[in-house]
Amino acid sequence: DDATFGTCLMKALPAQEKILADPKKSGEERWQALAFVIHLxxxxxxxxxxxxxxxxxxxDQGGNTLTVTFNVSRPKPDGSTDRxxxxxxxxxxxSLILFKYYD
Length: 103
Fold this sequence. Notes:
two-stranded antiparallel ribbon, alpha+beta, 3 helices, 19% strand, 2 domains
């Protein structure tokens, strides 16, 4: 929660875009705004932010407590490959992006 941007992505995204486009802002402020814009756009397309798998009284915290094996090998820096044991949420947030990057 933030007094300026609130908790709503639809308020925070335009506010960060405004900072990013303002040439009077410092490089650090604009760099931070760019990081927020990238993160918020990712959040906007993250389906696990608006659904939850219920198991009894426990939810999966948007896929953060659901462990999965990302079933695509990707190269490691040493050239070998492995499969990621990660959370379902992390697959959407980063594993798919990393796989595409190394593809």
